[in-house]
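Q: Sequence in, structure out?
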Amino acid sequence: MDDQDKDKIALRIACIAETKLASIVTVLLEKLQLDEQNRVDIYCILEKVLQQDTGDLERKLLNKTITLALNHMRETQEATNEVKVAASNTLVTLARCYFNHVMSELQCLLEPPKLPEEFVLITLGNLSSAYALKCIPFVRITLNAMFHMLELVNDSRMRQAFCGVLEKWSRAVKSCLTNREKYSFPRVGELRLCNHFLPIYSHVTSNWLTCEELELKQAIIKALGPMMSLLLDEDEYRDQIFEPIQWLLEQYKEDTHVFHITKVRYQSLR
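A: Exactly. Output:
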């Protein structure tokens, strides 16, 4: 079937799920376990079904959905990247009604010194983009765990994944602080949120800036911008924050995408 037909089928199943949520989710989870060839399509249907959920999913089915998606995300050989992306997207959708359940399971996979799988980090980043305010209570535990893993992250692909989390979580925190009139953030609370980013920022700027891989350089640059913007809100951090400016300027001479470098410089001057 082409994508249009698949979407029509997914929407029909999602409509049925409005009144028979448990039955539909049960069948889809069974299909995910048995039908390896069509897992991506099944996850896409499951995601549409979960968009209809208003928080009534049975605890047994909730736990099974989270466990199955995490297993597929973490498989090293059996699952393709497309399956991992689909499983990750399903968890992000599930978090709309069950954020604490999804986040708590992801936190269990951040256990230094063992490194998490790449898509665990990607999912953490996407959760902060989708639910910035809900992530605030998890900033300390998430960044502390990541900090204690940094010495072990030598692979370029994993460093990119770490940078993705740093970029998106710092954007999420910055967004919440910028709109503080909508939320209640004591001044001491703001400072503590920033404090959790500083050790990681210092490690990245001290140890990762000598990389040669173009994609990693771009990931680092994209992470530095929002972290700098966040940390520069605190006067006491400014001397440390400006240290990598010379490195950023040097990237103009290389092949790194100029847009990201200019954006970082703009954010640091705001």
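The first helix runs from residue 3 to 17.
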